[in-house]
Amino acid sequence: MTVIAAQPYDYPLPVDSRRIALVIIDMQRDFLEPGGFGEALGNDVSRLLAIVPAVKQLQDAFRAHGLMVIQTQEGHCPDLADCPPSKRERGQSNLKIGDQGPMGRILVLGEPGNAIIPDLKPKPGETVIAKPGKGAFYQTELEEVLRSHAISHLIVTGVTTEVCVQTTLREANDRGYECLLVEDATESYFPEFKQATLDMVRAQGGIVGWTATTEQVLAGLKTFV
Ligand code: TIU
């Protein structure tokens, strides 16, 4: 059996490589650049950029092996019909979802701030899931896309670890997907929350899934495909 060396134990890869997908969560300007939703919430966004090279390495490797790469984007339609008032009102920011910011309307689909950062730009034909919530399964076509491609294993990356990434991992785990969170390809505005998330995902024998480094994932993929 082919595996990725991981915690809390080796992550078994599926026999058919086409069942594995890379999921890149919300690597959009809103969260990684000044002037977007992340900064509007009071965060120092600069620390998130450190994971871009690792995510890029994984994206390149999955593409090179012809494996599926899925990106998500958190955002709302221009009339905010899919944004619960509770989400818009939460916090004490001057800039709320839908307001005009330095990168266009905050967290609105199609605005400059909502775009995936140029380094990780999806290729034509790659799946990009727009999502109104923190979890990528909530009110999206993700489950249908995964089913139609017979995907069973998700290698998960992106931001932020304890918000959209963890919510998506938990949603995926409950749906029966074998999830591996890549330790150095996910980041939070709060290092202690990132660490806690890694710990809780792999606790209790991998109650939500596995964790491994980018290097370990790449090494596993090499023996696999
Ligand atoms: N605020 C925060 O940490 N994250 C989000 O609002 N969305 C995602 O995690 N993508």
Structure report:
The chain has 225 residues and is of the alpha/beta class. Helix content is 33%, strand content 20%. The protein contains 8 helices and 10 strands. It has helices spanning 29-32, 37-40, 52-64, 85-89, 142-148, 161-174, 191-206, 214-224, and strands spanning 3-4, 11-12, 20-25, 68-74, 100-101, 104-105, 127-131, 153-159, 178-187, 210-212. Strands 7-4-3-8-9-10 form a 6-stranded parallel beta sheet, sandwiched between helices. The protein has a two-stranded antiparallel ribbon with strand order 1-2. The two termini are 13 Å apart. Tricarbonodiimidic diamide is lined by residues 26, 31, 41, 74, 134, 159-160, 163-164, 189. The site of tricarbonodiimidic diamide (TIU) has 10 residues, from helix 6.
**Strand tally:** 10
User: Which oligomerization state do the chains in this entry correspond to?
Assistant: single chain
Spell out which ligands are present.
tricarbonodiimidic diamide
Major sheet summary line: 6 strands, parallel
Strand order of the largest sheet: 7-4-3-8-9-10
Distance between the termini: 13 Å
- Provide the low-confidence segments as ranges: none
Per DSSP, what share of the residues sits in E-state strands of 2 or more residues? 15-25%
Q: What would you call the shape?
A: globular
Mean pLDDT: 96
Total count of helical runs of at least 4 residues: 8
Radius of gyration: 17 Å
Question: Helical amount among residues, as a percent range?
Answer: 25-40%
Main structural class: alpha/beta
String of helices and strands: EEEHHHEHEEEHEHEHEH
